[in-house]
Amino acid sequence: MIGWLIYSKADAERNRTYIDWLINGALENGLELKLLYADHIIIGIQNGVNTLSYYGEVLSIPNFVIMRSISNVLSTHLEEMGIKLFNNATISSMSNHKFLTHQKLASLGIPMLDTFYYKKSTIKNVVDTIQFPCILKNCIGRGGNEVYYVHNQAELVETVQNANFDELLIQKVADQVGKDLRVFIIGKEIIAAVLRYSERDFRANFSLGGDAKLYELSPTEKKLIQKIVDHFDFDFVGIDFMFDSNNQLILNEIEDVVGSRTLYTVSDIDIASLFMAYIKKTLK
């Protein structure tokens, strides 16, 4: 079976090692994985039929696609062409928008910080209603980028004015900053959890210089996480949590295009191979 691994060209250059892990994991499971750059994919409708070309060439439809480029339009188009996506367009759309993630999980009773959605153009009209300090995030930001610790109204207005994004998420500051937990999920299974922490930044992201170690989930934590997992059709995601003052988990976000460098650093778990085994089993 042949699959496409779709990345933007820029992201592919930064994630060459991980791409190799996925391609090798595919081979180990009797699959073939071809890297395609989203930048050179053209989608359209010709004669009433959904079409796709790559570098101007029409390709044979693959058995599956691993979508590592964030584009709801492309994901939906591929599904309309009858292609199986990992993750599907619905999961990607929710996970790649921080407010939509909180909106969906609120109905499950998942602990989370007070979270509000704003548009850049209207922030001045509502700034008097916001409590400080607060955390400001780009709703579609990734990797801890475009996340700001804001102390007062003037700082908030200036930060928003200088931002190059339009949709804002504003939250209370967590009881414990510089510390979070990433839980790796494949299908309905919790694979592992990694505690990320930083003494230098309120963000704990490994890519921003934080440290990490393998974390053993308690039965209570597993029950909470499994409640989320059982509700959604995840293929491969990372669910990120913060901690309250009692070390109880609080939802942070769900990563659709989840990075696994921390897991490879702190353990011998080959999650790329596990993911490819899951794909093989799912397709059969």
What secondary-structure arrangement, pairings included, does this model have?
Layout: E1 2-7, H1 9-14, H2 16-28, E2 32-37, E3 41-46, E4 49-54, E5 57-58, E6 64-67, H3 72-80, E7 84-86, H4 89-95, H5 98-106, E8 115-119, H6 123-126, E9 134-138, E10 147-150, H7 153-162, E11 167-171, E12 179-186, E13 189-197, E14 211-214, H8 219-231, E15 236-243, E16 249-255, H9 261-266, H10 271-283
Parallel strand pairs: 1-2, 1-6, 6-7
Antiparallel strand pairs: 3-4, 4-5, 8-11, 9-10, 9-11, 12-13, 12-15, 13-14, 15-16
Helix pairs in contact: 2-10, 3-4
Could you explain the architecture of this structure?
- With 284 residues, this protein is of the alpha+beta class.
- The chain has three domains: 2-92, Rossmann fold (3-Layer(aba) Sandwich); 115-171, ATP-grasp fold, A domain (Dna Ligase, domain 1, 2-Layer Sandwich); 176-268, D-amino Acid Aminotransferase, Chain A, domain 1, CATH 3.30.470.20.
- 32% of the residues lie in helices and 31% in strands.
- It contains ten helices and 16 strands.
- The chain has helices at 9-14, 16-28, 72-80, 89-95, 98-106, 123-126, 153-162, 219-231, 261-266, 271-283, and strands at residues 2-7, 32-37, 41-46, 49-54, 57-58, 64-67, 84-86, 115-119, 134-138, 147-150, 167-171, 179-186, 189-197, 211-214, 236-243, 249-255.
- The strands form four sheets. Strands 14-13-12-15-16 form a five-stranded antiparallel sheet.
- A hairpin with a 2-residue loop joins strand 3 and strand 4 (49-54).
- Helix 2 (16-28) packs across helix 10 (271-283) and helix 3 runs antiparallel to helix 4 (89-95).
